[in-house]
Amino acid sequence: MKAHSGKARLLALSAFVLIGLSSSAAAKSVDDVCILNNGDRMTGEIKNLDHGQLKFKSAYMLDAVDLDWGRVSRLESKDSYIVLLTNGRVFTARIRLDAASAGDAFRIEEGTQSFAVKQSEVLRIRPANQNFWTQLNGSIDFGFSYTSGNSQYQTQLSASATYNREGYVVTGDVSTNLSGHKGDSATKRTAFDTRYKKLIKQKWYAGGLFDLLTSDQQSLDLRTTVGGLVGRNLFQTSRTSFNAFSGLAVSRERYSSVGQPRATNAESLVGLDFDTYRFRSLKIDTRFLVWPSLTDPGRVRMGLNSNFRIELIKDLFWNLNLYENFDSRPPATAKRNDLGITTSFGWTF
Fold it and tell me: Which of 283, 328, 335, 290 is nearest to 306 (CA)?
């Protein structure tokens, strides 16, 4: 028994040592150097660069600070980063910025290769050794309104998340809207959609989508859509992006209307995505989709989802959302439109 106990203790000690060593090996350097145009110098850790803001954390700071990327004159680090450029190219490399040097200021060192680009061409920087959770960004928001005059109420709950890795991105969104009058049955709408995009060439990407939608307004019990797409980034800067995509999809529909059987449809797809960030606290993102039917010529579905978000204090925001679903040829007893506007408060992570 003593021998077994001794072995168990030795194994446990070895495990703790290995965990400690692996954690130390994966630990990021905290001696990165950042110098601003006005001469201010900070030593600490580069967290990330996104939407024109460099997040930097020094040991004497309680929280990381957001710095204007255009006002950073020098950046040094011993670590490797995932770097995304405005032309769509992605690298895992060591980086260095020296705005005072002649020519292009941002240098990328990937293995034995080294080259430089303009500082304004750097779209995103993320540590290469981040785990799944630190690569995940998203938000959760909730809204509620009530009118006493007619006892009308409306609630909205939504969440979104984005996962970025070298060369690909996965996004997911889910929202539920409930509205009605006190004492009457409520009208409910639930939507879920996820996207996968993989860079295949500079500014070109391929991917897929999976959508679910239920809408009492349109008597739609469930619509399931699966498809593939190819797209191109038409315009991209550190603060604004605009891209177009097209593809093919298959949808399966089930309506609550009497006499409406389940139906499977083949559809083509055309879409636009627009995102912009302004003044560090304003974000606008819009997606517009058109689904011309291939199995039911003449039928066209359209979808619009737009968010206007204003940051109130750190990580807390106010959001205005507009959504619209249109069907040019729904079942006879179903409505063609499902339009809504909601406001909510939320938290980003």
Answer: 283
CA 301 to CA 289: how far, in whole Å?
8
Give one DSSP letter per residue of 137-162, joined into a string: EEEEEEEEEEETTTTEEEEEEEEEEE
Taking Cα atoms as reference points, which of 176, 165, 167 lies closest to residue 136? 165
Residue 61: pLDDT above 60? yes
Provide the token pair at 125. Answer: 């920087």
pLDDT tens-digit series, residues 142-167? 998 877 766 788 899 999 999 877 67
Q: Residue 300 in contact with residue 291, Cβ under 8 Å?
A: yes
CA dist., res. 197 & res. 112, Å (int): 29
For the entire predicted model, the pTM comes to 0.78
Please report which confidence band the pLDDT of residue 7 belongs to, taking 50, 70 and 90 as the band edges.
very low
Picking from 325, 291, 290, the residue whose alpha carbon sits closest to that of residue 305 is 325
